[in-house]
């Protein structure tokens, strides 16, 4: 088995993260709709919550394909729980997942600081924007609305996805529940180095 092959334990964690966030994403739909109803672009501030599953899973496991798998499975879970967005969310989930995965690939799955997580979050938001143009009709809006939607979604992705994903995973590390995953193993020194 190579170091990039997923173990059963890692696959199980990806599935758990996907199920958990699939439910969170289902609950998040009405939050997003309500935020949009309160004020224009307020929904874009909360939108990046839909990128978190892939970034959290990749940050913990640190192997190729994890971000894509976790995010796509979470989108599938949201669909199975009766999402208000229907089948289009699978395409949107895939684009968001691909956006994050590309960044981790560019850093060769070796760098996992906040900057990389923030860039992955921005890239996931770009995937969602691509989907918004193709499926949601973002391009039919005025130039101002398009620019504001894109700007607010990208900016908020840094905090809502990047910082929040890092915070969640780091808090889980502190509990000791991730001691056998790469997020912890990569920081440990061999006994002879101590």
UniProtKB/TrEMBL annotation:
InterPro entries: ABC_thiamin-permease_prd (IPR017195). The keyword Transmembrane applies. Keywords: Membrane, Transmembrane, Transmembrane helix. It holds the Pfam family ABC_cobalt. The chain crosses the membrane at residues 6-25, 37-61, 85-107, 114-138, 144-164. This is ECF transporter S component. It comes from Lentibacillus halophilus.
